[in-house]
Amino acid sequence: MSDSTGPYAADFELDGPPEAEFNPGIARRMAHKTVAAGALIRDPAGRLLFVVPNYKPFLDIPGGIVEPGESPSAACAREVAEEIGLELTPGRLLVVDWTPGRGPWSDQVQFVFDGGVLDPAAVIRPAANELTGFRWATLEEARPDLRPSVHRRFALASRAISAGQTFHAEFGHLLSPA
Question: Where do the Nudix hydrolase domain residues begin and end (predicted)?
């Protein structure tokens, strides 16, 4: 929440009143990055759940853009519910990856959370306004339908699950364990 009524109300109270802007307009002139969050969801066979967006030519994982005042984990849960109809509590943070701006998209900070292993009986309902479907595939099976940088990010996320670590990356290249 961006105000003092949400889950961090006590923290807002402890921090005191908002900081005054000493140079009027400076905050509006500063760069703003897009933040996105997604869930790496697996089936019992270890395949990954990919969504097929109707607004770009590549596969992705369930997730999306973090709204102003929303935390990345809350955005992940909201986006998974909106995109595929699953109520999910995001697990451990697997990867934080910075991606440069490209085409119509600004540079982004991407959070990938552990979405867990989905029960085979779970019903997946792709949102028709965003997706044309979904697909279960191994990372290698999906490789032709992923941008190389996205493939690298998801490979790091898969590695983070087995390593029990969180990775810091830029453009899908590992910088360090966080």
Answer: 32-162
